């Protein structure tokens, strides 16, 4: 199976052939995978080199001309380093585009902390008007990419990951999807965390909701699922900073007595690096770690 990043580069190259409004802006990362597309569309595949502020500003400039820019690099260099440009050149200018990240929280541990961005979704969530997609499978990444590329002038962040679920789920770029139903509480699995969540709650009487679009959060489905349980207890399992969506979940449940537990990457600087699997275990996001914390919270 190909990775989300491989699927992204292949599909985006095809989309350039189909839609003259699209342009791709790169900062060296994945540039080798757009060689043929750059030869075919030299004016719409732009590599600015390792200049991430320029990367985002170029995308914003293209958007001002009526283009639909797809801006791509590692998450730490796409959201964190040029955050002011994201805020001003897209948000303040009122332009739209598609930011597509790779790297995620710890997809390339050998790159060290500079190449990890567990806070990217939380940081982008401080800005108004962004749709944030977190696919859990390459097929989902393709569907959400096509949806974002064909959109009008809205602002979309597509967060790709090396971690993937074994099978895709239907995605529509909007709501939460019910995977299973139970009475003891609700567990929301975001993107590539679904397989681990399902393994963790095996035998527990809980509802599992699957999210590939986390902003805007489907508050209606979350509230309905929580209200149907014995106690409106909600566990959020996110592949980035723990608690990123806790406030949004709390607002959805405002008129219900409820509890919310946010699980994800801890708020501590990483100084020891291993494999993706070792990082998942170290963060308690493997099935065993999730099982212990979910069962303890729900009293199961």
From TrEMBL:
Residues 2-168 form the Transketolase-like pyrimidine-binding domain. GO terms for molecular function: magnesium ion binding. Transmembrane segments: none annotated. Pfam families: Transket_pyr, Transketolase_C. This is Transketolase. It comes from Streptomyces buecherae.
